[in-house]
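Page 42, continued from yesterday. The earlier attempt failed because a stray header line got pasted into the input along with the sequence. Redoing it now with the clean sequence only.
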Amino acid sequence: QVQLIESGGGLVQPGDSLRLACAASGGTFDSYAMGWFRQAPGKEREFVGAISWSGGHTFYADSVKGRFTIFRDNAKNTVYLEINNLEPEDTAIYYCAADETAKRMGWLRSTLNDYVYWGQGTQVTVSS
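This time it went through. Structure tokens are written below.
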């Protein structure tokens, strides 16, 4: 059973940068593709981006390209989401999730149901 714990959220101002972390335990971290999702108030959870098991490939939602960066440190069993130039519209709970099938399939996926393990989320609030 994989456990994921996000951290790094908080209250920030527009234009700030933030780095979220997701620490994994209980599984073989470098065999999972990792994804980040977010859920804004009153909206459905949406895909933000994903990173391959090795860290060599990333895939982002069009809405966040250029401001969001995902990277991972397999030695630390941790995946990160760096967000630059934060906007009020980025206010949401951010979740990390693990896809244990992506490696076998050979590509990254963006559908919620493709991710088996989920963290509890970390709140990001962007406000002046």
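Notes: The mean pLDDT is 96.
Reminder to self: strip header lines before submitting.
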